[in-house]
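ERR on first pass: missing label on line 2. Operator R.T. fixed the label and resubmitted. Corrected input:
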Amino acid sequence: LTITKQYIPPLVCGFSAAVLSTIPGFKELACCLVIPLAAFFSLYLDQKINKIYEVISSRKAITYGLLTGLFAALFATFFDMLMTYATRSNDFVQALPETEAMIKDFNIGPFVEETIKILKTMSSDIRTYGFSGLYLLSMLTSNLITNAIFGLIGGLLGMSYLNKKWNKG
Amino acid sequence: MKNSKIYFRFVFFLIVLLWCIGFSLKALTDGSGFSIVSSPVLNFFYNHVCHQDEAKLISFNGFDFLVCARCSGIYIGALLSSFFILTFFKRIKFPLTIFSITSIVLLTDVILNNFIFNFYNKISAFSTGLLFGAACFFIVTNIIEDQIILKSKD
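pass 2 clean. output:
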């Protein structure tokens, strides 16, 4: 089995999960439903396209789960950046005035001012250039963490289901 | 029980505990300064995990959790089962069928609440989430312990 062929199922499923996560309604389900399902399908797809009919090892399940999550995170961040660039706005920019008001209400010292300053810089960069490096970094980090966790869970559950089916067969 | 298994269970418990503290920090610390300052970052982080619809959030101590009732149930369920696994030293065999049943119950609740009755019941969302989260954590821990920790020792 070539290395390229090995990476096709997580790449395809990660990409599909990222596309689905851009659809309103699906976006909220992305991590807890779409990513684990994508990890499951990447294992299933691997069995189908590479014609491997044997019990899936835990190592493979973890690798496929993590890779699916990783690819989904990279593509989802890329799509989000693309849409932010095109519209010069996103959920973060829209929610900022509300967040700012809430933080100011509590009036808890100079550290808050610094926080607000950073958030405002991010928002202003997005509105002016359609891009903010800090936003990209935070988006990518949070996507990588959550998608890797849920991809891993999906891979392990997928392995359990597919191996059960294999044992029955 | 082997030391590696205890360490693994302890680390898993800590990770889930940190995750739960993250979304309930404001409520747990009664709106402390630190929780307010960190709220934009935490909000941003948990926004990727949950829709955070205001009508579906659970309030505690006068402050909302950063995730909805269903997600709160899932994570608190995982926390409870991780604590149970940590304190219960014997090997726990958890059948996949129970996980499938809890998934079906959760999915049925989602369909009934969102598409048929159009009424979000926080209690049912939280309790079905709690069952699912607990079952999911048991299964994942089972798989990791059986397949990885035991195999690596062989």
